[in-house]
């Protein structure tokens, strides 16, 4: 029997590759000679760099960049094995996890470091860049990102505006005269799994601001600032980004990608599945195993298991998903091409216990799945 194991990480416990290794080990307890094609995957968020680097034989490049509050941080990006494509996770330079809760301040937080990663990728010779949005501490509409790439965001005195979302209220003019010329020959795909507009009740500030430390008063300031920013983008660049689905992603970074890069916004899982060549892999196997830390009703909205299942269904291959836990709405995945779902939870317990036992629980669950398939269908016997 030949199986493809295409899983995301189990957050806080196992990387995507470790998940695949444990599933393989469990299957080999039933079928010692099983042929496993293991493909660490992601959906455009955390782990996307690791997944694409591992799958393509690429490398991770580390470089010091500006952190969300201006302090230097060690950022990173990936380069695929052919050296042509860079993968950038926005959170590596502007992530919420880079700041303790008491330091989070979306009025001042900047995306400049993300732009610096972009420049480093261009310096490395990459002319195709995949930018993963999500997990940001920022609400500056990607203004710092644009400034790092050479765009001028000027106040009434002709000076560059300060860092942070609040400073956008002082934006008087945008100029692209000094924008990095290499961007003209660079293709940018933005991995974006939300469809929020830039402003309003469903916009970046109202929906995502509170988790970044914004009070209601701050949300009002930030929303007004982004509205003004959108107006300047329209006036100076001729682009209407205010209501474009996804423009509000990652504190408005989606808007910057559209306005300054002419980027293509795509579901993250779609980008990753394409980059990994999943369609070719699943066409040549008997069974597909996928999974992530939690499977629930949100899984069908662009998560890795749903993306894998969509490709597998087109090839007519059965799909089994394994998750650390199952949540509300899990039955929705059956309509998305997943044939069966299994949880690794063996008994009631605390989260810390589940994380500590993740490796052995996953291997045991994979072994049980393999035996159930063998007993029920004779597949691979």
Structure notes:
The chain has 381 residues and is an alpha/beta fold. It folds into two domains: 2-40 and 277-377, Rossmann fold (3-Layer(aba) Sandwich); 48-268, Glycerate kinase, domain 2. Helices cover 35% and strands 19% of the residues. It is built from 13 helices and 13 strands. α1 packs across α13 (358-377). The longest helix is centred in the middle third of the chain and has 22 residues, at 216-237. The radius of gyration is 22 Å and the shape is elongated. The N and C termini lie close together (8 Å).
Tell me about the largest β-sheet.
6 strands, mixed
Q: Please state the average pLDDT score.
A: 92
Number of domains: 2
* Helix-strand category: alpha/beta
Q: Topology of this protein?
A:
Blueprint lengths: L1 E6 L8 H13 L6 E4 L9 H9 L2 E8 L5 E8 L5 E5 L1 H4 L17 H12 L4 E5 L10 H6 L3 E3 L18 E3 L11 E5 L12 H5 L7 H22 L11 H13 L2 E3 L1 H9 L1 H5 L4 E9 L8 H11 L4 E8 L13 E4 L7 H6 L1 H20 L4
Parallel strand pairs: 1-2, 1-11, 5-6, 6-9, 9-10, 11-12, 12-13
Antiparallel strand pairs: 3-4, 4-5, 7-8
Helix pairs in contact: 1-13
